[in-house]
Amino acid sequence: MSGVGYRQLWAADPGGWRTAGVAWAGLTGPVDRQVGELGAAGTRLRSGWSGAAATAADARLAGLGAELASVTPALIEVDQVLAELAGRLTVAKARLAEAVTRADAAGLVVDRAGGVHVDPTRVRPTERTSVVAASVAAALRDALDGAGAADRVAADRLDELTRAAGSGWASPPPPGRPAAGAAPTLVRAWWAGLTPTQRRWLIGHESALVGRLDGVPVAARDQANRLRLGVWRAELLAERQRLLTRVPPGPLTTLRLHGVAGRLAGLDALAGRLAADGEPRAYLLRLDTAGEGRVVLTLGNPDQADRVLTYVPGMGSGLDDAPGELGRAARVLDRCATLAPGERSAAVLWLDYDAPDFVTAAASAGQANDAGPALHRFQEGLRASHEGPPARQTVLGHSYGSLVVGTAAREHGLAADALVFVGSPGVGASHAAELGVPPGEVWASRAPDDVIRVARPVDEFARRALLGPASLAAVLGWPDRSGHELWFGHDPSDPGFGGRVFGSGRSGHTGYWDPGNPALDGMARVVLGR
User: Fold this and answer.
1) HSE-up (13 A, CA, CB side) for residue 481
2) What three-state secondary structure class fits 503?
3) How many C-beta atoms surround the C-beta of residue 41 within 10 A?
4) Which whole-number Å values give the CA distances from 521 to 400, 424, 513, in the listed order?
5) What percent of the chain has pLDDT over 90?
6) pTM of the predicted model, to two decimals?
7) DSSP 55
């Protein structure tokens, strides 16, 4: 359609589009089962039939299976298109409602066609009411234009899928693939040079490659990684089976079985969130079941957002507790939506590093140093794949995650407009100026009862502990002259660090995201740039 009218937008139901998208994505299960049944039928034929006819039949079944499997990425794409339409309509409706509220407060009336008039029973026409009326009318046009643009984008993408259904979903791309660790700008240029059918071929046939490449659009990475969810679950089940066959099991095997169970539970919880009929839609950008497990998952599409938060958790983080960490990112995003319903925001859980499991490991900066290049590349990828004007990007680190963020910013640079550190043991820097973001955009918060405040450089802690209880008590009592040196440098919540500080209630080391904690509001306001 050429545009969206006032009454049309007011009556629009974004939730209905979102539900329709989930229904399309839900068809992937039946398609996968049909593909499996065709494969099983081929196996049965090969076991009892030979000759030219058998070979031809086997080839035909294999071709049908491949053709059917090629539909799956398109089903996921329809879900993405409708979910993104729903998200943009939600923002447009919020802008519409805000404009109508402003009109009412000024004694103006918005008629059924979207016209703005003075209500003579409440106010008299003045120069001021004319200015307000013009401002409200502009805001209404902006909301309607946003809805119209969303409608056109969705219609164009669905039209392209319809055409592809008739001419073929996928076609092989030319030779040549980006090398591992390639610059996201180069990856983005390579991807932009492919046709839609070539991209779908890569998503279906080289999903492991597409799913991990920073610089490939978020929607494509999500499609590729969703196709691999069954593979990752099968890997964990196979690992569990190998451990169960060990006789005698032994305590180490029992511990490993517990770890596998935790990762399975985490994977299943994330898969449930990916399939959920809710706002915002989740996008899977990375998953690895090895070790403690790694995951990068975003709520909302950062390629289309005005504000993007990347949250880096700390010690003990892994695939098993990723759903809980995702919940923290979701709370910040919810607060952003409350404070700025007319803006599109997205929140990323970035757990693509080997987080330390114990305090002894967390006393070293080694794992933070190792994580730096990957976080740098990821943020560069967000910049490269973003659509339209650049988003405001904020990177938030909690606990040891703040050292990961600080080290990456200082050593490699981060494509970020703001950095936030909460519950930090130090960020590997002595001053905010070392972190490479605009002045005034380094933020920190520390709860009054956060145990991290007694953290000291590990060599000094060990030395004083050896001297006896009195010296250990002195360390815990913060006896040094400055009072601002933590495990990994100057306390970022100290004004002398050169950053800015927002408050937190008494919440211990993990309660910064608790409802009612002012720190939650502080994090959201930094993300929004307010």
Assistant:
1) 0
2) coil
3) 15
4) 22, 18, 9
5) 75
6) 0.91
7) H
